[in-house]
Structures are given as structure tokens and as C-alpha cells.
Amino acid sequence: MNSSDSDIILQLNNISTVLFKYMSPPLFIVGNLGNFTSIFMFSKKIWRKNVCVFYFFIYLIFGLCFINSTMLGSIFTYGNNIAAQNNNVVLCKFYIYAAFIWATGAPTVLILASIDRLLISSQNVDTRLYSSKRLAYFMISISTCFWIIFNIHLLVKVNIYQFGPSLYLCSYEPTNEYLNFVFFFLTGIHTLYVIVLFILSILSFKNVHHIQLIPRQQQKELRTMTKRDFQLLRCLFAEGIVFMIFAMLINGYYFYQAITREQIRTPLQTAVGNFINNLFTFLYNIPYCANFFVFISLSKAFRHDFKRLIYKVCGKSITVMREENNQINLAAINET
């Protein structure tokens, strides 16, 4: 290995360290604050009655779990060279197991929410009745139990393995069959998520387009969708786009790893591969940290409620508060 390759490898390693040591912590803080704020906003009575908000509520909880376990672990591991999972077998197993639960459960909730929006935007009255909290509770419970059981193989196959004279790492079982299964599963499930989310989003907006063609008076008689429903649908569509973009990036890396894993690589190729993995791992955290910004930018009702919260925290005058309340009441009347 020549000196130029060594310099490139050193630079790539330094960039990876900067990503997780200096850029991930602010993203970690913003993600936690944003998700906690969104959960607090959606816990209000005016939001709780909406089925789509329930799905968002669960999605935000999955996001918080991902941020405070998987993302926090990557900050310590790649940014500060502190890998506690490499020294404790139980922590090693549950660290990777939990990462798979959050990474498969969260997009599943987005898909279920998209199905709900497809139902509520239907012109058929009987179809719209399927959009209910009872169905939401049932589907969330079934999907969560499925991923908990399906991913249980990680508790058996993940362990601390020796990869050198004094190099012990928390990793998957180093056999060709199992590693192929893991990489092809990650590739397949993220591809499936992207395709399903894309199709459901297109169908939902097709339904919305048909609703908007109906005269306003007839829309009220049919009781199809309120303005709040339309705003939530836009938020859901944006959440899907954000997830699809970053899922496709890391999905491409998983696919590349799956087909080239057995090839002999030079130290430079290995360093480039590790850098791409670290970069895409960093970017994959963004969908779980961007929820608050999606809601506040695309939902007028969410912005109004957030402004009211800020007014209360800052102790703004009661007159201004009443003016805001009047505006929100007028908006609520227009929705009905």
C-alpha cells in the first residue's frame, strides 16, 4: 500500500469520525426534542381522535427508540471509539436486535398509516368505515409482534466474534449462509417498503384529486375528509418521501455488500466501503429526526397549536392568546 492510499484512508476515517462525533450529536438532540414535542402536541384531545395521528404517535415512539439506542450507539462507536457492545454479550445481542426492531417497525407503521389514508380518502362510504382506531390497534399489535418474533434469530446468531489476534467485535455469525440472509433481507425489505409506500401514496392522492373535484357543498354532505385530514395526508406523503430517499441509499449499499462480500479487497477498497457504510448510516438517522419539521411545515393546524404552546411557555399576553384561539375556532368551524 503506497503513501497516497494511506493518506486517502486516513482522510476517510477522519471524515467518518467528524460525522458521528460532531454532526450526529446536534441531530440527536434535535431529533429527541422534535419527537417529544410532536408527541406532546398529538396527545391533545383535538388530535387524539384522528386515526392517522395515532399512527404518527406510534411512529414517533419508534423514532425515539431508534434515536436513543441505535443512533446513540453509533455516536459512541464511530465518533468516540467507545463500543460497549463489543465487551458484553447480552448488550451486543440486544443492541443489534433492537436496531432491527425499530428499523423494521417504524416504516411498517408508515405503511399502515398510508393504508388508513387510502381508506379515509375513498369515495365509498363503506370503505371509509374501515378507517378506525380499533383496526389501527389491531394492525399495530400484529405487525409489532411479527417483527419481534421474526427478528428473534438475531438473539441467537449475533455474538462477539474474534476477527483478529486481539480484535473482538459484536457482529452477525460469520458464515456465508447467514451473512447472505442478513444482507439480502435488508435489501429486500427496504425495497419492499419503498415500493409499497410509493404505490399507496399515489393511490391516496388519486383519491384526494377525485374528492377535490366534488363541489364543496356535496363534500360536506358526504363527510369525506376535513382540512386537518388533508394536512395529515401531506405530512404522511412527506414522511414517506424522506424515508424512501434515505432507505434507497442504504439499500444500495446493502445490495452491493451482498453481491461483493466474498471478493478480495485492497485496504483502500475496504476503507472506501467502510466510509460509505458510515455515511449512509449517518444519513439513515435523518428520517427519524425530521418528523417535527415535516409536521410544522406542512400542517397549518399543527403550527397553530405549536404557537399556542410557545405563547404559554413564554407567558405571552392573554389578549394575543384569545386572538389565536378565535382563529383556531374559526378554522375548526370551517373544517366541519
UniProtKB/TrEMBL annotation:
Gene3D superfamilies, A to Z: Rhodopsin 7-helix transmembrane proteins
Start and end residues of each G-protein coupled receptors family 1 profile domain: 34-295
SUPFAM superfamilies per record: Family A G protein-coupled receptor-like
Organismal lineage: Eukaryota, Metazoa, Spiralia, Gnathifera, Rotifera
Subcellular location: Cell membrane
Transmembrane domains' residue ranges: 22-42, 54-75, 95-115, 135-158, 178-203, 232-255, 275-298
CC annotations in GO: neuron projection; plasma membrane
Alphabetized UniProt keyword annotations: Cell membrane, G-protein coupled receptor, Membrane, Receptor, Transducer, Transmembrane, Transmembrane helix
PANTHER family recorded: ALLATOSTATIN C RECEPTOR 1-RELATED, NEUROPEPTIDES RECEPTOR
Protein name as it appears in the record: G-protein coupled receptors family 1 profile domain-containing protein
Top-level taxon of origin: Eukaryota
Organism of this sequence: Adineta steineri
GO MF annotations in UniProt: G protein-coupled receptor activity; neuropeptide binding
InterPro entries xrefs: GPCR_Rhodpsn_7TM
Gene Ontology biological-process annotations: neuropeptide signaling pathway
Topology class, membrane: Multi-pass membrane protein
